[in-house]
Design brief:
- The chain has three domains: 4-21 and 212-296, Helicase, Ruva Protein, domain 3 (Orthogonal Bundle); 40-209, Rossmann fold (3-Layer(aba) Sandwich), CATH 3.40.50; 299-387, Winged helix-like DNA-binding domain superfamily/Winged helix DNA-binding domain (Arc Repressor Mutant, subunit A).
- 49% of the residues lie in helices and 12% in strands.
- It is built from 16 helices and seven strands.
- The radius of gyration is 25 Å and the shape is globular.
């Protein structure tokens, strides 16, 4: 027979516990605050280009670069919110639509999504690409009030789409009247995926986002913490420690917010009314383990072999050149190996994921230059992620 207390609703029992949080939503990187500390210059840069839309002129294309967690998406969405507000006040027909290219990965999907966001019923499959483009361009004909629509499209993580699907979307959009593109990318070299004929039409203005420093990260965390936590639950050194750790991660505000939130969750799990520095250190280990594990589990098998080869050479304390790496990789692959040239693509991709770093060193006069590869995460953590999951 089941005891009565086991019949109680588990969510009611869990929900009744004390917590250090008022609301966790303010520590989510997707939350858009009313203030973006230390990004005023970047907001002004975006606004400087987009303001032309308020006088009926299609603004120039904009490209926003910066490492993960430097506020690129937040700034674009902040400027969007303010532009839409003032365009409504001035009765100007301007729209700003946001597309995350990890969710919509082909030209067809992006244009279908844009049509749907703007009230046009277009299916995600079943039409030809020409039919979808025609439906999209139809929306730019003058409305009943005789006012032209100006559309600004934010394409977040555009490098993902270009790498997987080519530059067809940019070709279509740059040849559609009254459309401006705001591209967001973590990588300054993403334009390698764009053909010259499209580059010439893009003619974009570039805005670079620098990483946050430790003091700037503290300012961001202070504002969010006031919204997210109950009074007097943060030990004095918690926010400085989160900021210092995130500053070492190339000034990543997302990482700082994740550290602070996870530290609070650990305090709750331990029944503590105060968040201590030890919870921050524990949160760092937890986040790093999850991050590396998630990356490893989604890597193609050939890239896992390259990583296994890097681990082997690192543990032997060998200097890792691309040539030496390829030798070991071929041994580990047992005949199922890719070309030496393809290894360079794998190295670039692993570096973009933050698992390794590369540097070019000179061997002296007449000996040329060599790429040296180093692991950028803890060996034990990497081994656990590769072989214990």
């Amino acid at each position: 027979m089941i005891k009565g207390d086991l019949m109680d609703n588990i969510f009611e029992k869990l929900g009744g516990k004390n917590s250090v949080f008022k609301s966790k939503k303010y520590l989510d990187h997707r939350f858009l605050p009313d203030n973006l500390p230390h990004r005023e210059d970047q907001i002004r840069s975006v606004a400087k280009y987009w303001i032309e839309s308020l006088i009926g002129v299609t603004p120039p294309d904009v490209t926003i670069y910066g490492k993960t967690g430097t506020g690129k998406t937040a700034v674009a969405k902040f400027a969007r919110k303010q532009l839409e507000q003032i365009s409504n006040e001035k009765n100007v027909n301007v729209r700003v639509e946001y597309i995350r290219c990890t969710d919509y990965t082909t030209e067809y999907q992006v244009i279908a999504r844009l049509c749907q966001q703007m009230g046009q019923d277009v299916p995600y499959r079943g039409w030809t690409k020409a039919e979808v483009i025609h439906a999209f361009r139809d929306m730019f004909k003058k409305n009943v009030f005789g006012k032209n629509l100006i559309l600004i499209i934010i394409l977040d993580e555009i490098d993902i789409l270009l790498k997987n699907n080519g530059d067809g979307l940019l070709y279509t959009l740059t040849r559609t009247d009254n459309v401006a593109i705001a591209s967001i990318s973590n990588y300054v070299d993403f334009k390698q995926f764009i053909k010259p004929r499209v580059k010439s039409s893009l003619r974009d203005r570039e805005i670079v986002f620098p990483p946050y420093n430790a003091q700037q990260l503290m300012d961001i965390l202070d504002e969010r913490a006031e919204l997210a936590f109950n009074n007097e639950v943060l030990n004095n050194d918690v926010i400085p420690l989160c900021a210092a750790m995130a500053a070492k991660e190339e000034g990543d505000a997302r990482y700082a917010l994740d550290l602070l939130r996870t530290s609070g969750e650990l305090a709750d799990e331990n029944g503590s009314d105060v968040i201590y520095e030890d919870y921050v250190r524990e949160a760092k280990d937890y986040i790093e383990h999850n991050k590396v594990t998630d990356i490893i589990m989604t890597l193609p098998s050939q890239q896992q072999k390259v990583l296994e080869s890097l681990l082997y050479l690192t543990k032997r304390k060998e200097e890792i050149t691309s040539g030496r790496l390829y030798e070991v990789y071929k041994e580990f692959s047992k005949g199922d190996s890719v070309s030496y040239r393809r290894i360079f693509d794998f190295i670039n991709e692993l570096e973009l994921l933050g698992l390794i770093s590369t540097k070019t060193v000179s061997r002296g006069r007449g000996k040329g230059r060599t790429n040296i590869i180093d692991l950028q995460c803890d060996i034990q953590l990497l081994e656990d992620a590769m072989w214990n999951n």
